[in-house]
Amino acid sequence: MTLLELRGITLDYPDDVRVLDAVDLDLDEGELMVVSGPTGVGKSSLLGVVTGLVPRFSGGTLRGDVRLDGESIVVLPPRERAHAIGYVGQDPAAGFVTDTAEDELAYGMEQLGLPPATMRRRVEETLDLLGVADLRRRDLHTLSGGEQQRIAIGSVLTMHPRLLVLDEPTSALDPTAAEDVLATLTRLVHDLGVSVLLAEHRLERVVPFADRMALLTGGGRVETGDPADLLARSPVVPPLVELGRAAGWTPLPLSVREARRAARRLTLAPPPADPPAPAPAPLLTATGVGVTHGPVVALREVDVTLDAGRVTALMGRNGSGKSTLLWTLQGTRKRRTGRVEVGRPGADGRDPAALDPAGRRALVGLLPQTAGDLLYLETVAQECEAGGAGTRALLERLVPGIDDDAHPRDLSEGQRLALALALVLAARPRVVLLDEPTRGLDYTAKAALARILRELAVDGHAVLVATHDVEFVATAADDVVVLAEGEVVSAGPTRRVVLESPAFAPQVTKVLGPPWLRVDEVVAAL
Amino acid sequence: MRTLPRDLHPVAWWLWAIGLATATSLTTNPLVLLLLVGVVGVVVTLRRTDHPWARSFRFYVWLGVAAVVLRVLWRVLLGGGYPGTVVLDLPEVPLPDWVLGISLLGPVTREALLAGLYDGLRLAAIVICVGAANSLANPKRLLRSLPPALYELGTALVVAVTVLPQFTQSIRRVRAAQALRAGETGRVRRLRRFLVPVLEDTFERSLALAAGMDTRGYGRSGDAGRVERRVTGGLMIAGLCGVVVGVYALLDQTAPRLLAAPMLLLGVLVAAAGLLNAGRRVGRTRYRPDRWRAPELAVVGVGLAVAVVGWWVNRHQVPIAYPDVTVAPEVSLAALAAAMLGLLAVVVTPPPSSVAPAPREPARAQRPERPEREVEAAR
């Protein structure tokens, strides 16, 4: 039976921006629905309408009706919906109210005024259900991203909501932690009959679990239907679906397992040999780099070489030292041991740690994790002017056609990233480091980023990009370095590293086996 | 009394510490003060938990030491002209006329130093008592035990305490990020360069937190009717007015006496009634609330006893409470008892429940094994 009904939902933001246009949506009990679409198309707004956060926290005018079990709840504020609708945001740490996991699980129930005995029982049940019983007394801010996300889910589950609304719950997680969280969600749907409404643009992860899909196609329209049907027509699709479409498989396989069965009938030409690796032209050489954070060793004897003309991906689970390595190579983070040389080693190699900020900028450019930290002015033109000569031209090359008068905060994720990157590149560094630039980007923006990185490499830059996104690595990187616990556990050409670590394998490799890596290779061999 | 380890109600520890602080504020006898500090130290060592805030005691001890040092230095700097035995003959710095009555430096007497030392010790002991309360009782749990009507206030304070470290983290991050790009270097402009992202970040974080709290039912209206809400509001406002008038009358000696203490009392009572009324309509419950049992009462009793005996010494044994700086200080049995009574807190309370920090997952599975080395070791 229908749990949630949206009827004629129309949402307008100021300046006549229509985000949702007469949207109708039904969600059945015990159903997992994925909300998908390009970034900035209104996924979060749609979820906000359901939880009541839109328009209360976002502004705008809302028309239409939201019904829960046939009763209109559109005028109720979020707090009065809390007993029935649980909401988990993108950054779980931002929503934590208490300081230990146990208190956090109990918080919502305290607000509902449940009897203490019930609270006690539900906390224990939920700790077990999510497999986080050993974290109960831990400080929430010392937990890893995946653990935090599971606590955040638990903290709404204790209220026994009928519907769970999650806004990109895995966007900040490494592949393994993301799979943990998604497996937890599937288990909830199967065991408890909770309905789940989930926004996600990394479809490759969630589509196999989805019962139905709502696709936001822009212009405020929403299409709902079976994932396989919708994906057959969708402009942006996960690699698996792209492969299925290219190979003409019907029905379209949505999970790796289904695709593998379909792939048995596939005959492929032998894959083209990789072009021989060019003669190494190291631009940055780091040997034996060690960094400590208090008594904790953050990096231990890390050796990294970045060659001109190559894109290297830096992978590893959350907290494995990726960001620390980037900041150390850039010179801001002080190292305890080891050497970092930018330029030809021995000849004109210079250590960025020995220079002032301006000197470092000219040697090594670094795009930090929150690119917005770099921006502080009101318009794109002012930012470019402050960035120095040539910034505007660089931006035009990276992403053409950004309006001069636009406010940096109003740009799309991809455009803002490009602006920050242009500011970093304005000092003309030959080595470029990027810290998780793919976070929050949709397929189109990621493809654009991959193209930008390739162009930088062709220009003779050495590029190192830290990321969790295995599909992005498969398409964009020549080499991969995998960190664990501050040590390099594998390094080398993408194809070889991916072969060694199944956890980092892209979908195409999972389906067809090595050496296949990208859809375009397979398409060429069909 | 054998009881299982558990954490005491935070309010109990605060009342105990306030009792000790009261006793310390009523004497300058260095022997009694040092004894009190020692007692506090022993109780803190034996009864504090292993949570992070419990380690703050050391910080308060250093604060106390700083208080003593500053107090003595102050005496040296400004204490010229104190009669007594000169130990250090410093030249006096003449000051202009408009700072009449103050002299810089000048001969330092032993009495001046001792007076500074005693005074500083008293201040230090009070600071250390507060520090003891802070490290024995989780401040966040203390806020959680506010009456239900003040719940919103308590939550706001808890959030503020939690958010502060995040704010410093955000400042550090933006600072590092801004060094990665070119931009204005002027003084004011640079400040803006740095403030805008930090403020934006803080603002976004606050909104996310508010949204998170709202979706989890924070501030749900109870089932109170309109009349009831008005009654509560009326009681609170009337109570506050009563308190204000009472305090004014207490301080202004010309006001009618009827308006002083009685009015203050009435105001407090009415406000308390308002709080109670507001608390009744709150449809909120508490998860594993701290319970008030015999050991809590005993600890509060100990604090009270220390304060009462301290007050008695202050009233009836003035030379003991405020020893002369010209002779060696002495102690009386009562003064000793006042200090040592504090130790009883250890006897009447159960040990704190220890938190075994869960070991982080070893997660070393990905590290390449080195079998050849193991083989060598086996040989």
From TrEMBL, chain A:
<dbReference type="GO" id="GO:0005524">
    <property type="term" value="F:ATP binding"/>
</dbReference>
<feature type="domain" description="ABC transporter">
    <location>
        <begin position="284"/>
        <end position="510"/>
    </location>
</feature>
<keyword id="KW-0813">Transport</keyword>
<feature type="domain" description="ABC transporter">
    <location>
        <begin position="4"/>
        <end position="243"/>
    </location>
</feature>
<keyword id="KW-0067">ATP-binding</keyword>
<dbReference type="InterPro" id="IPR027417">
    <property type="entry name" value="P-loop_NTPase"/>
</dbReference>
<dbReference type="InterPro" id="IPR003439">
    <property type="entry name" value="ABC_transporter-like_ATP-bd"/>
</dbReference>
<dbReference type="InterPro" id="IPR017871">
    <property type="entry name" value="ABC_transporter-like_CS"/>
</dbReference>
<keyword id="KW-0547">Nucleotide-binding</keyword>
<dbReference type="InterPro" id="IPR003593">
    <property type="entry name" value="AAA+_ATPase"/>
</dbReference>
<protein>
    <submittedName>
        <fullName>ABC transporter ATP-binding protein</fullName>
    </submittedName>
</protein>
<dbReference type="InterPro" id="IPR015856">
    <property type="entry name" value="ABC_transpr_CbiO/EcfA_su"/>
</dbReference>
<comment type="similarity">
    <text>Belongs to the ABC transporter superfamily.</text>
</comment>
<dbReference type="InterPro" id="IPR050095">
    <property type="entry name" value="ECF_ABC_transporter_ATP-bd"/>
</dbReference>
<dbReference type="Pfam" id="PF00005">
    <property type="entry name" value="ABC_tran"/>
</dbReference>
Automatic annotation (TrEMBL), chain B:
<feature type="transmembrane region" description="Helical">
    <location>
        <begin position="231"/>
        <end position="251"/>
    </location>
</feature>
<feature type="transmembrane region" description="Helical">
    <location>
        <begin position="57"/>
        <end position="78"/>
    </location>
</feature>
<dbReference type="Pfam" id="PF02361">
    <property type="entry name" value="CbiQ"/>
</dbReference>
<dbReference type="InterPro" id="IPR003339">
    <property type="entry name" value="ABC/ECF_trnsptr_transmembrane"/>
</dbReference>
<feature type="transmembrane region" description="Helical">
    <location>
        <begin position="12"/>
        <end position="45"/>
    </location>
</feature>
<feature type="transmembrane region" description="Helical">
    <location>
        <begin position="297"/>
        <end position="313"/>
    </location>
</feature>
<keyword id="KW-1133">Transmembrane helix</keyword>
<keyword id="KW-0812">Transmembrane</keyword>
<protein>
    <submittedName>
        <fullName>CbiQ family ECF transporter T component</fullName>
    </submittedName>
</protein>
<keyword id="KW-0472">Membrane</keyword>
<feature type="transmembrane region" description="Helical">
    <location>
        <begin position="333"/>
        <end position="350"/>
    </location>
</feature>
<feature type="compositionally biased region" description="Basic and acidic residues">
    <location>
        <begin position="361"/>
        <end position="379"/>
    </location>
</feature>
<feature type="region of interest" description="Disordered">
    <location>
        <begin position="351"/>
        <end position="379"/>
    </location>
</feature>
<feature type="transmembrane region" description="Helical">
    <location>
        <begin position="149"/>
        <end position="167"/>
    </location>
</feature>
<feature type="transmembrane region" description="Helical">
    <location>
        <begin position="257"/>
        <end position="276"/>
    </location>
</feature>
